[in-house]
């Protein structure tokens, strides 16, 4: 795939120099900080040394006082409470956090996760009817509910109150819940808008503990789950989320909950866990339960107090993930074959595919896989109960959620984010929807937008990559949106003669510039070897990582792309 290389916007040299001097770092490090919104000594201090005291007062969130008051009434009157959450990793960690906290205060509480196939995403009528049948008076909804106007009104008619803790974009009308905790509400003055669903659940228990003088440690116990949610949901990694993940990773490494201990022991024991271990390891295994089996398995694991029992639950998740991976591989292959056989796809700006044999639980992953190859807004449909359920993924700067909305009456139901959404259409409308979606994408994209981008932070020479420079880069962690791992560009490199292809598809690089050599690895980039092996100078985009081999630690280039 061809990538366009884009430098970060030029910054004010005087401001960069001023920041560098005030915190005693190089201008390169100061540049990286300013690109991440850090411009002053105090902001740099908060960035490099996050403190739990940096967390915002939860009562700054609209309706938080109403939520705490209603929960206290429910506990005082021994009313039955359901903690209700979505079936993905954000929803299940949110439910586990809030349920675990409040079950210490009342025994009249349970949790509810909707069935992905029978109930679909978010609040369901089946769930509300279950609450009515079991005499529930209060539902605390997590990671869903902001757009459930009619269903929350229906619950109110049945005498059931709702507290909604959500981070999805509100529609034109907000539900008449007792409290709607969502920083994305236009009337909410909460200073940070990008919390995950579990992050908002954490603010709820933080507020309750604060209101009733409970030790803050009782809240901090759940920071490992908040970190798992925040990293897995790929939300912004600055400001309050940076604090939550920084201390959540600390908790994960030092004293994780029993469920996470069991999960890690089941598949990956390491000395130290980082964001990537969550994104590519913990998160997918928690998600697998909702994709393949019953998402309640994830909650059972994460709230479990007995390690032996937790190990049994973790085995279920590991098995689910193995099955998920097999399905994902098979469906991706089938989808690729369909596109390969389609004469139209090469000229289309979007990808929309359907098969009635595809498993609903993995179509979102398949959509992401296709974007890695074709880089077009993509929707993959499967059939559920006579309707087509789709999972949409997008490319940078294109709002797929808005594009689906622009397809009008062809869409029965939809929701989600700018880059990931879910939708339902009638089976007979598939062709009409595909054509309309293609029309919307075509009018809203350019050739440049449909060319994948590598945005690099700085252009540097190899002599600037020193141990002290690398150590400061390590302190920029944890990485995520808004604070991605820095990418560098270096020009005029030559192959030292030792570069090669390993395991048939990976590039093992030994690069040299002005007499300085660095080893590098480019996973899946073996085809680039032909461009560098002829002795021609080339330019390189890469990030830096520490490679440990046989007790030796060396700075290594993680290759993103090569340009001759």
CATH top-level class of the largest domain: Alpha Beta
Principal-axes geometry comes out as globular
Mean pLDDT: 95
Count every beta strand, where a strand is a DSSP E run of 2 or more residues.
Answer: 19
CATH topology of the largest domain: inorganic pyrophosphatase (n-terminal core)
Separation of the first and last Cα atoms: 15 Å
Structural class: alpha/beta
Number of helices: 20
Domain count: the total is: 3
The description of the largest β-sheet is:
5 strands, parallel
Sheet with the most strands: spatial strand order: 3-2-4-5-6
Question: Could you explain the architecture of this structure?
Answer:
With 564 residues, the protein is an alpha/beta fold. It folds into 3 domains: 4-45 and 454-563, OB fold (Dihydrolipoamide Acetyltransferase, E2P), CATH 2.40.50; 58-319, Alpha-Beta Complex (inorganic pyrophosphatase (n-terminal core)); 330-444, Roll (Diaminopimelate Epimerase, Chain A, domain 1), CATH 3.10.310.30. The chain has 20 helices and 19 strands. The protein has helices at 13-23, 27-35, 41-48, 64-76, 89-102, 125-133, 149-157, 197-211, 217-220, 223-232, 239-254, 258-267, 275-292, 296-303, 307-341, 363-374, 400-405, 430-444, 467-474, 529-532; strands spanning 4-7, 80-85, 109-112, 136-142, 161-165, 179-181, 351-354, 378-384, 387-393, 413-416, 420-426, 453-456, 458-459, 488-495, 500-502, 506-513, 516-522, 538-549, 552-563. It has a 5-stranded parallel β-sheet with strand order 3-2-4-5-6, with helices on both faces. Strands 7-8-9-11-10 form a 5-stranded mixed β-sheet. A 5-stranded mixed β-barrel has the order 14-16-17-19-18. Helix 4 (64-76) crosses helix 8, helix 5 packs across helix 14 and helix 15 (307-341) packs across helix 16. It is globular and about 75 Å long. The two termini are 15 Å apart. The model has no long low-confidence stretch (mean pLDDT 95).
